[in-house]
Write a structure and sequence with these properties.
The chain has 88 residues and is mostly helical. The chain has helices at residues 3-14, 16-58, 69-83. It has one domain (3-83). It is elongated and about 115 Å long.
């Protein structure tokens, strides 16, 4: 190995504990940040769902009745024409 590689290896070996500590610290910070972001997303989603459920619960149910008498009359006229029983 060249002298530069040997010097670089020795320096890395001397600072290995500090490098490992920095890497572990950075990993912890990244995990904590990820957990915080996920917690915020879950909280926001839960809040949105609760608000949607509450707003749907407050709406009044409206029922509408439809008279089908006109359709029934039209259908009976059509069947009468097909059967040839219509009086002209």
């Amino acid at each position: 190995m060249s002298q530069q590689k040997v010097d670089r290896y020795k320096e890395e070996k001397a600072n290995r504990q500090q490098i490992i500590k920095k890497a572990k610290r950075r990993l912890r910070i990244e995990v904590i940040a990820l957990v915080a972001v996920l917690a915020l997303l879950v909280g926001w989603f839960s809040f949105a769902v609760v608000q949607q459920v509450r707003s749907n619960a407050e709406k009044k149910v409206v029922s509408t009745e439809i008279s089908t008498a006109a359709i029934e009359g039209y259908m009976s006229d059509l069947s009468a024409q097909v059967n040839g029983t219509e009086e002209e």
